[in-house]
Amino acid sequence: MDINSLIAHYGYAALVVGSMAEGETITLLAGVAAHQGLLRFPLVVAAVALGGMIGDQVLYLLGLRFGSRLLGRFKKHRKKIHRAQRLIQNHPYLFVIGTRFMYGFRIIGPLLIGASRLPPKIFLPLNIVGAIAWALIFTSIGYAGGEMIGPWLHSLDQHLKHWIWVILAVAIVVGIRLGFMYREKRREKRR
Asked: Which pTM was predicted?
C-alpha cells in the first residue's frame, strides 16, 4: 500500500480524530490532499468540522463540570482567566466562534467557556457555526496551497520509499553498534 491509497482509505477518519484537539496543520494538509484528488473537498470540510466540534464540545463539558477546579490550579493567570470569563459573558457569540481562530487558545478556550457557565443551548450552535467556518477556511487555504506544492508532493512520493530504506539501514547499523557497545560494557563490568 502506498501513501496515496492510505490517505484515500483512512483519510476522513484520521481527519476527524486529528482535528479534535489542534487541527490547523491537519486541515491544511487535508486541503492539499483534496486538491490532489485523494479526498473530496466537501467531505474534508465535513470531517474536519465534525472533529473540531466534537473536540471543543468535550472540552466545554469538562470545563462545565470541572472548570473551577481546573482553573483554580492556574493561580498565576487568575487575572487573565477572569478577564476572559468577562469577555465570554459580555460577548459569547464572538468569543465562542473566535476561540477557534486564536492561536494557542483551542484547548483552553472551550474549558474557559464551560467554566464560565455559558449555557449549552448557546454554546452548541455557536460551536457548530465556528467549526464549519474554521474547517471551510483552513481547508480552502490548504486546497489553494496544493497548487503550489503539488509538484513537490509528487516527487516526494517517488523518493519516499528510498528514504525509508535508507533510514531503516541507518537504524539497523546504529542498533548493531549500540549492541556491541552494550556487550563490551557488560564484559568490562564482569572483570
From this structure: 0.70
